[in-house]
């Protein structure tokens, strides 16, 4: 995270099938293809950081200036790339979008290209939301998945309490955007999160009733907040 804004160099390939991304490590499932217009990517373990970076946004630019546009593409991380050959594997739509107007076919034939990439703030039109995972069982077993996390941030702690109560109970990260507890109080429920942009952190409180009394599995709830924090700048010497 100290190099949150650093420009890094590596190679990137692409998935020939979008369906491969729907079973990604981050667990977004069928929602994956709706994120960022299908411009998503699998990242190396160093970038994904045990899932902490699931949902993070990156700008990726092809370094072949003859066939690629200068601006590159913006992608959201949704999966783990287990290959040692590339840091990123993009969805096919994202990969070919790096090409100049008449060179998409040529870029696609290359399969793998040299790229520059950096983490950038995510911008979502929707508020931070949660989806209640299927393994949840009211009233005490609660597992939630965060969606539409904005800014250039990590969620590093989550607490739950009955609405109006100060008896906060911590939740544990299962993997990536999924957090759970077996000690959830009866609903309605309120949530708070510690969000960090790379240095320190701050509490972010969801609306007073994040989950209703009758919350159920598969439901998605709008938390009524948007996160816009970004990582603080770093010196060039810290970018490696």
UniProtKB/TrEMBL annotation:
Residues 23-127 form the Expansin-like EG45 domain. Residues 140-223 form the Expansin-like CBD domain. This is Expansin-like. One of its GO terms (cellular component) is extracellular region. Gene3D superfamilies: Expansin, cellulose-binding-like domain, RlpA-like domain. PROSITE patterns: EXPANSIN_CBD (PS50843), EXPANSIN_EG45 (PS50842). Its main location: secreted. Pfam families: DPBB_1, Expansin_C. InterPro entries: Expan_Lol_pI (IPR007118), Expansin/allergen_DPBB_dom (IPR007112), Expansin_CBD (IPR007117), Expansin_CBD_sf (IPR036749), RlpA-like_DPBB (IPR009009), RlpA-like_sf (IPR036908). Belongs to the expansin family. The keyword Secreted applies. It comes from Musa troglodytarum (fe'i banana). The lineage of its organism: Eukaryota, Viridiplantae, Streptophyta, Embryophyta, Tracheophyta.
């Amino acid at each position: 995270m100290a190099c949150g804004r650093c420009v890094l160099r590596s190679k990137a390939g692409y998935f020939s099938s979008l369906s491969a991304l729907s079973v990604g490590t981050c667990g977004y499932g069928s929602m994956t293809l709706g994120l960022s217009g299908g411009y998503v990517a699998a990242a190396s373990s160093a970038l994904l950081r045990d899932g902490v970076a699931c949902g993070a946004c990156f700008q990726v630019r092809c370094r072949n200036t003859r066939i690629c546009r200068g601006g590159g593409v913006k992608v959201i991380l949704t999966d783990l790339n287990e290959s040692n050959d590339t840091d990123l594997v993009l969805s096919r739509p994202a990969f070919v979008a790096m090409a100049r107007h008449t060179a998409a076919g040529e870029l696609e034939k290359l399969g793998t290209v040299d790229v520059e990439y950096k983490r950038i703030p995510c911008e979502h039109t929707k508020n931070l939301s949660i989806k209640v995972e299927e393994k949840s069982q009211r009233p005490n077993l609660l597992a939630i998945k965060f969606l539409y996390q904005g800014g250039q941030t990590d969620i590093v702690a989550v607490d739950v309490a009955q609405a109006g109560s100060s008896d906060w109970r911590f939740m544990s990260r299962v993997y990536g955007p999924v957090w759970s507890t077996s000690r959830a109080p009866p609903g309605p429920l309120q949530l708070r999160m510690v969000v960090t942009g790379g240095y320190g952190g701050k509490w972010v409180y969801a609306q007073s009733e994040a989950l209703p009394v009758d919350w159920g599995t598969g439901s998605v709830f709008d938390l009524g907040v948007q996160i816009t924090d970004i990582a603080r700048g770093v010196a060039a010497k810290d970018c490696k």
